[in-house]
Amino acid sequence: MTALLTSDQVVSYRERGWILLDGLLELSPDALRDAVDEVATWGDEGEWMNHYEMTDYGRQLARSENFTPFSPALFDLLRTGAVARVAGELLGEAALLYKEKINYKLIGGAGFSPHQDQPAYPYVTSVLSVMIAVDDSTVENGCLFVATARHQELLAQDERGCLAPEVVADLEWMPVELRAGQTLFFHSLTPHRSGPNLSTKNRRALYPTYNGISEGDLRDAYYATKKDIFAHSEASDRVQLSLIGDFEGRPA
Ligand SMILES: O=C(O)CCC(=O)C(=O)O
Questions:
Q1: Confidence label for 234 from pLDDT (cuts 50, 70 and 90)
Q2: How far is C-alpha 123 from the chain's CA centre?
Q3: How far is the CA of 1 from the centre of ligand 1 (A)?
Q4: How far apart (Å, rounded) are the C-alpha atoms in residues 119 and 107?
């Protein structure tokens, strides 16, 4: 199979810790929006997981995850399509889907504290995060900010598993705006954060995470662990979406 990335693109990713790609998806932006809108209508009775947040506009859906077994369009997009192939080229071996989520960030939705993803991913070391923009993602509606070329090590953390304040102050943060249908691949140690959605439109994004095939198929183990931890977690001032406390949303 011919490579989808040039060797310059792979080198750039390895140096910078992220790469933005255009024109990769098999689905048009409209078809992508339809598939994500459908997941949002499923309700809470099922094997997928939905999480809610309180906003100034009321209780809103913040995240859905574990949906690819029930959405043929998103299964193909995330498991068998070009996104997984590029993830494999960046990991240096075939990529398996470790987990998948939709961050809805509807109008008034909260942002994410500065963090690295790796501490939220038990079991895997060779792992890659991806953001697929469902809506245009801008500074106003809460796009990602990243720190370039800072993915060589796990940086100091606070008690939530996010980056320690002195680390955050030391990093150079750069906004990465995406148009709907564009794809951002970033290393699991690339520091990133995002603000709230202060615009008048929703900012939905899909986030598949891949691990290298040499570490095995760990998706079921990840969701079993997550459901168990969430079933026993205590109430907090923030909604728990992840195995670290990166989400700044209020409990609903
Ligand atoms: O969707 C966003 O704004 C940021 C998401 C993020 O950093 C995460 O889910 O780990």
A1: confident
A2: 18
A3: 32
A4: 29
- Find the radius of gyration of the CA atoms of the chain: 17
Domain regions of the chain by residue span: 12-231
Q: Which CATH architecture has domain 12-231?
A: Sandwich (2.60)
Give the mutation target among 51, 107, 192, 197 for probing the ligand 1 site: most ligand atoms within 8 A of CB: 192
Confidence of residue 242 (pLDDT cuts 50, 70, 90): confident
pLDDT of residue 33: 98
Is the distance from CB of 118 to CB of 112 less than 8 angstroms? no
Ligand 1 binding pocket mutation candidate from 118, 176, 194, 242 (most atoms within 8 A of CB): 194
Strands 205-212 and 127-133: antiparallel
pLDDT over 80 at 122, yes or no = no
Contact 139, 113 (CB under 8 A): no
- Read off the amino acid at residue 139: V
Q: Whose CA is nearest to atom 5 of ligand 1?
A: 112
The stretches of the chain forming alpha helices (DSSP H) are 7-16, 29-40, 72-75, 82-91, 165-170, 219-231
Token pair in block for residue 13: 């990713």
Please list, residue by residue across 204-224, b when 16 or more beta carbons sit within 10 angstroms of its beta carbon and e when fewer do.
bbbbbbbbbeebeebbeebbe
What single string gives the DSSP state of each residue in 212-228?
EGGG---HHHHHHHHHH
